[in-house]
Amino acid sequence: xxxxxxxxxxxxxxxxxxxxxxxxxxxxxxxxxxxxxxxxxxxxxxxxxxxxxxxxxxxxxxxxxxxxxxxxxxxxxxxxxxxxxxxxxxxxxxxxxxxxxxxxxxxxxxxxxxxxxxxxxxxxxxxxxxxxxxxxxxxxxxxxxxxxxxxxxxxxxxxxxxxxxxxxxxxxxxxxxxxxxxxxxxxxxxxxxxxxxxxxxxxxxxxxxxxxxxxxxxxxxxxxxxxxxxxxxxxxxxxxxxxxxxxxxxxxxxxxxxxxxxxxxxxxxxxxxxxxxxxxxxxxxxxxxxxxxxxxxxxxxxxxxxxxxxxxxxxxxxxxxxxxxxxxxxxxxxxxxxxxxxxxxxxxxxxxxxxxxxxxxxxxxxxxxx
Length: 370
Known about the structure:
By secondary structure, the chain is of the alpha+beta class. The protein has one domain (3-367): DD-peptidase/beta-lactamase superfamily (Beta-lactamase). Helix content is 30%, strand content 19%. The chain is built from 10 helices and 15 strands. The longest helix is centred in the C-terminal third of the chain and has 16 residues, at 345-360. It is globular.
């Protein structure tokens, strides 16, 4: 096991051990950054690529999956602050070409209460999976460089019955954020990437975050992600670091670093990015899943609260947590061998819990029963 420590030289054996346990659970590599009252600690464990021996990165790029939603939500709210978007305005007013239910508001998109079918598929109440766009198995592998226009993803979703009447329930759907990003582009007349750069990246000095669109490239340096699947009865494992992420679009296509995620989330939670009223709106959760506007609100017990949004996409995952004041943050990127059954899911849940316990709750022993 190779672990790279930051130049600050803090002695944090508990974080080193946590990373080693995460790699032992099945991940190829992990990059971790913790900022708290003791300062900043940065480390990496595992390997950059399958079968390789190079030391893990600590400043590498990775695909952040659904953390993209937090970036999109913040961009929308900054346009609300500029008076260009109405949080409770009908989405149909901004995107009239889809024939959306007029009851669906911008807030409902950001909070996953629109009822729109998820274009990446839905798990029904009876346990059956209703597929959407291909993102598993050989079908995804063969088409992994295909470009999906955002409008095509939306129309796929709208071809399916809604899950529920707008505003009456909660259901996580990537399509909500495909639409939210289209709203940004509609009201500004500019690509989302340009508005995101204007409103978030440039003001915060973030240089490692990318909205890739249809580009399959991952900026150097980076770890590698892999995919294991069956082809003509044979099991194959291929490097899928390069792939076109437009199949998920605004639901999870972006790229970042642990440094940029810390910069962003500490500024956001610390009140340095959004006006106070809109930050309060963002951090007000709905009752079913504890989801605000592009952020989860987690009760840690004893009156404590954490804000977070994590993400996982094919071969790559990311963590982003903060205390309410933005002073303590945990950001991480993980790479692994994925498969159609998403076998890494249990280990990912354990990694989240392990790191949260260590950074925010004083160690794993405190919450072994929870």
